[in-house]
Amino acid sequence: MTTYVDYNYFKELALAIPSDICRNERCSFDPVGKSYALEIWGDEYIIDLMQNKIERSSKAIPPPHAYFYLFVIYYLLLRQDIKLRGEWISEKDLPGGATFFRGPHLLPTSLISDRFANHLQGFCDCCKNLGGTPLALADAAFSFIITKDINVAVLYWAGDEDFPAEAKILYDRSITEFLPLDIVFALAFEVCTRLGACEHR
């Protein structure tokens, strides 16, 4: 399902030189099938230029949210390699983020907080299952390697009788250099969706 991917992205990718797209072994190209394959967040994605579609090789449940395919193809089209800065920022710290991330673009972090409520261990178990690395932030926090040059962190505060559970997503500051706000939203939406659907005891 690639509902949210504009055809022009496929057209641009079809006109690109495969060796440029696959620089530094960031992906592979099949000249016969006219498709690219790259790994994102532990899964392989196939970008089929003949059928203008994107599929995830893994059939694990749940499948990615449709928004995430937009992030996948946009990332593949990036013209530069970015070095991580090692500094976390929120979406409101992105240029224009305070205005953009509201209303229809409000991040659905409630999917995470509603899922785990005050079950801190459940949150930790799910993050570990998704390849997360613990961080010394909030009540619990984990960083995730989405790609070699994109990391996100998920912070979680368990709820109690006085305050509801809360979740927050952070990004390495380098993300401001190469991802527009709508692509950051597509990435963050998938993070919330995947954690929100995670099974825990």
Give me the secondary-structure topology:
Layout: H1 7-15, H2 18-21, E1 28-30, E2 35-40, E3 43-48, E4 53-56, H3 66-76, E5 88-89, H4 97-100, H5 110-116, H6 120-129, E6 133-135, E7 140-147, E8 150-157, E9 166-172, H7 181-196
Antiparallel strand pairs: 1-2, 2-3, 3-4, 5-9, 6-7, 7-8, 8-9
Describe the overall structure:
The chain is of the alpha+beta class and 201 residues long. It folds into two domains: 7-76, no CATH class; 88-196, TATA-Binding Protein (2-Layer Sandwich). The chain is built from seven helices and nine strands; from the N terminus they run ααββββαβαααββββα. The protein has helices at 7-15, 18-21, 66-76, 97-100, 110-116, 120-129, 181-196; strands at residues 28-30, 35-40, 43-48, 53-56, 88-89, 133-135, 140-147, 150-157, 166-172. The strands form two sheets. A five-stranded antiparallel β-sheet has the order 5-9-8-7-6. The chain has a four-stranded antiparallel β-sheet with strand order 1-2-3-4, with helices on one face. α3 (66-76) packs across α7 (181-196) and α5 packs parallel to α7 (181-196). The longest helix has 16 residues, at 181-196. It starts with 6 loop residues before the first helix and ends in a 5-residue tail after the last helix. The model has no long low-confidence stretch (mean pLDDT 92).
